[in-house]
Amino acid sequence: MAERTLAEIPLSLVEYRATFQEPIFVAFERPTLIADALYRSFREWNITFENISWKALPINANDVQIVCDLFNKRMTFTVMLGVVSLLVTNPNWSEVGLVGAVVRAGMGAVQASTSGVTKEQGVILAMHLRPQGKSIQDVTTRFRAISSGPGIDAGLRGYGFSVYGHDISWLVDLSAIYPEALFVRTSRVFGSSVSFEDIAVSLKKDEDEILEILQLRVD
Q: What's 108's DSSP letter?
């Protein structure tokens, strides 16, 4: 096995999403009921009134949402008409238990206050990876599929790839934010009965496999 190159992660994001079978239009006639349920469910993590927000006059249906910020905005739980999401900034695998607890508490509050029924779940992992001591071109050169083209060789910086399955996708590209970094994105869809812990296991496996393909490692 080739020796792996250490990579820095300047930014990473994980988003959990649960999609409803039907939009919860009626529930948003009184958004304070949802906000109250979320406040009570998240109270153990010191949520305050300032951490919960919603728009009194949304512009359209996509604008209808309640947002709860937790842990100094490292986690954001959002309830919309058709979906609930938890966005975690710079997550750590040691926090799987905490993230799972937040998901269960938030989903429990939403289901109790709206009668929303989950159709499916999804999870996205996005990472910016900056290899230490290797260029992006060195890391990705073996993924080159096009041998020539107009202006390709002149400004060549690196390569990427994408893979799509029935309920999974992988993307490796150049980072648009950080110089000399890669952008990696994995996405999976799960049934409504799959536990968050099992979802996390699949996500960790995806991360490990992509890092192995890239011959990178992270601390």
A: H
Question: What's the rounded Cα separation, in Å, for the pair 186 and 202?
Answer: 11
Q: How far apart are CA 155 and CA 152, in angstroms?
A: 6
The residue whose two tokens read 């710079």 is 90
Angstrom distances, CA of residue 172 to CA of 71, 90, 126, 161, 162: 30, 19, 10, 5, 6
The total number of residues written for the chain in this structure: 219
Neighbours of 140 (CB within 10 A): 20
- AA identity, residue 203: L
CB burial of 143-163 (b: ≥16 within 10 Å; e: otherwise) equals eeeeeeeeeeeeeeebbeeee
Q: Determine contact, residues 167/189, Cβ cutoff 8 Å.
A: yes
Integer Cα distance of 126 and 176 in angstroms: 13
Three-class HEC string of 132-201: CCCCHHHHHHHHCCCCCCCCCCCCCCCCCEEEECCCEEEEEEECCCCCCCEEEEEEEEEECCCCHHHHHH
Mean pLDDT check: name the lowest of 83-87, 157-161, 178-182, 211-215. 157-161
Q: What is the DSSP letter of 207?
A: H
Model confidence at 63, in pLDDT bands (50, 70, 90)?
Answer: confident
* 89-to-60, 75, 102, 107, 152 alpha-carbon distances in Å: 27, 6, 14, 19, 35
